[in-house]
Amino acid sequence: KPHVLQPSQTNELLQRLLGLELATDGEEITGLLKSLRLLLTKSRECQETLATDSGFSKFLDTVAFDPQMRTAQGTVHNLTLQVLANSVVNNETTQTLTWRQHGAKICEQAYAPPLGSSNNVLLMIMYNIYVNSRGLISDQVALQTCARLWQGLNTAQCTYNFEYLHFFLEHFIVQNGRACVACYQRLDTEDRVSFLDYVAHYLREDSPNGEVALFLLHHFAKEFRLKSDCLLRETLKLKHELHPREVHTLLRIIASASGSEKYSHVYASDQSLFINISSLLRCVVAAGKESDGGGLDKPMNKLEEVALTSGIDSSYEKKVSYELKTLLVRCTANLLYDNAANKGYCLDTQLLPTLLESTVMDARNPLMREWSILAIRNACINCPEAQQVIAGLTVQGPASNDIVSELNLELGALRISDRQ
Question: Which carries the bigger pLDDT value, residue 233 or residue 156?
Answer without folding.
Answer: 156
